[in-house]
Amino acid sequence: MTRTSRIPGFYKVSVPERHAMVGDATAATEHDLALALEDGGLDAETADKFVENVLGTYALPYGVALNVRIDERDYVVPMVVEEPSVVAAASNAARMVRVGGGFHAEVDAPIMIGQVQLVDVPDDVAATGAILSARDELLSIADAAIPGLVARGGGAREIEVRSLEPGMLVVHVSVACGDAMGANLVNSVAEGVAPRLAELSGGTVGLRILSNLSDRRCVRVTCRVPAAALATDTMSGDEVISGIENASRFAELDPYRAATHNKGIMNGVDAVVIATGNDWRAVEAGAHAFAARSGTYAPLATWRRDGDHLVGRLEMPLALGTVGGTLRVHRAARVSLQMLDVSSAGELAAVAASVGLASNLAALRALATDGIQKGHMALHARSVALAAGTPTAWVERVATMIVEAREITVEGARRALRVLGESAARDVEPRRTEVTADAEE
Ligand code: MEV
Considering only CA atoms, which residue is closest to atom 3 of ligand 1? Predict the structure, then answer.
């Protein structure tokens, strides 16, 4: 196995051929992939054990981002997403970043926060003092609630008390969660320490639950892209850098734009989070709360010129797990982790954040140059071709035809199909062509 994420021509070959290529390039074999991705990786019987009132399962496309290099290591990154162009755009941007040496990541220790709300506290100051004085006892009670995690080297680390209003305190218990996302562990801790907190404070216990603002568990990713790698057919790399810097300033100054800017980042992050069986609602909640931490909603990633390079930086909380959680029984989630071959949840967070930064770069470069619609419409043409009932072997061909005819509609696709049908009747083989070759390299 040659571990590389650079696989030229990947988009041109069939799905089984892609399995073989990824099998050659990663720790997941061709056989593993075929088996894991059958039925979308989850049958109805297993799904019935996950949630309630199951009628079936709901499939989404499973693709891979190529060209991703982080701290001198290559990753073929699984992405589950329904939006056309997200995977191609991330792969394309990762190729540009690769020219500048790839992504560099720094990940915090996996600390999650459990919150215990105390109400009707008679004396906030006295209660705070009593709780902080009992720190060691409280950490022991917390650890007793999670013996398995403590045996693996994790456990409760710190106690903090915050006063929210007179008579209402909230106690934070920080827990090192190892390679778990940590929700169940932290909830057990919060419930475990609550009775003693009520005694110490003289108040009544309210809520006991983790916080999804996991700001002790952040990941920071940077990249440096040379101007030449950013140039388009009509704009120099230098002009593209200026455009992306202006786009970044726009998001920094305007929450309306920051929301869309961050949506573009989450296109990449969520796709990896879902592919690896993690809780994307938790990640979304944490990301947006973090983006608003100054009181003004801000971009999670920013871009600046540095000489003839563009420098991107992203910082966000990412509470991901590589162990535990019901989704570990999902075959596709398991094969995703096998393919990535990460040694920790922190490494997985570095991968997801890098794909987020790549997605952001791709979106800003498109917006600052041709506009987003050109590439989107070309890829949207495939979905339209499928909706028109085009056989899969002809989808690329029909998509190309309706883009060229500027008629990206189901009716246009049916017309293209009729033309192709007539050619087939004259013994012309359907063949694969490219809609936007550049978009998927
Ligand atoms: C679309 O899914 C995402 C974008 O709107 C992100 C952005 O505007 O930066 C293109």
Answer: 264
Residue 360 CA: nearest ligand 1 atom is 9
CA distance 312 to 139: 39
Largest separation between any pair of C-alpha atoms in the chain = 90
Report the residue among 87, 92, 261 best suited for mutation to probe ligand 1: largest number of ligand atoms under 8 A from its CB. Answer: 261
Domain boundaries of the chain, sorted by first residue: 10-107+218-370, 111-210, 374-427
Residue 326 pLDDT class (50, 70, 90 cuts)? low
Give nearest CA residue, ligand 1 atom 1. 264
Q: What is the CATH number of domain 10-107+218-370?
A: 3.90.770.10
Q: Whose CA is nearest to atom 6 of ligand 1?
A: 264
Which of 81, 92, 263 should be mutated for ligand 1, with most atoms under 8 A from CB?
A: 263
Interval between CA 326 and ligand 1 midpoint (Å): 31
User: Catalytic residue positions?
Assistant: 83, 263, 279, 376
Is residue 429 predicted with pLDDT exceeding 70?
no
Rounded Cα–Cα distance for residues 179 and 336 (Å):
16
Q: Is 171 helix (H, G, I), strand (E, B) or coil?
A: strand
Distance from CA of residue 118 to its chain's centroid? 35
- 89-118 confidence digits (pLDDT tens): 999 999 999 999 999 999 999 999 999 999
Is 1.10.10.10 the CATH number for 111-210?
no
Task: Give the range among 145-154, 157-166, 416-425 with minimum mean pLDDT.
Answer: 416-425
In the DSSP assignment, the letter for residue 300 is: S
